[in-house]
Amino acid sequence: MMVYVDTRAGMAEDGWSAAWTFELAHWGACGQGPDDAAAVADLAARCGLAAGELDVVERVDRAETGDETVFDRDRAPASEAERAATLAILGGARARTLALVRSAPAAVLAYQDPARTLPTYASWHTVGQLAMHLADTESRYYLPLLGLPTRPRAGDLVTELEESGVHVRREVARMAPDLTATWDEHGSWTSVKVLRRLAWHEHGELDVLNRLVQQATADNRR
Questions:
Q1: What is the CA radius of gyration of the chain?
Q2: CATH second-level architecture of 75-221?
């Protein structure tokens, strides 16, 4: 399987590397670790493959190219299969997020794990903040970076998650396959890059969200 490595991407933690694949069977999968080898190994585990089955075909270094790099593969027009895979992943992930948030009492939404490590720029420390971060990222970061419509926050978390999910899926469904944009602060973005990032983001954060909810629920029962 062909793999694309973003060295020192700093996503899960400051300075960490990220490893991606564009294979439709693993669309949105991203491995992360303190160095390139660890990120590739994490991707292999997430895809149920041995490390030897992965072939790094492109590597970019964010420390050299600036924030938010693109791979050459990102510059190809998005396929309808990539769009469809993204929409399917978004719909399933949002349903799981909403189920967690709707069932969480206020004390759970306010829970913060003191042992959890976040990058220095992160502001989503509690369960509720992490859930809101999902909507903030998709509706007020990814989409507008390609010139697609943004939207203001709704008045409460559940409504925001519902409305943001509908908004993003609608925009993805009609998005041109060959959009490109470059920003001084946010680097380069393309249709394919936004699709793979959307497919990855909530699906990946759900593991953390679910763990935090379980921890908070257990703590509240003590």
A1: 17
A2: Up-down Bundle (1.20)
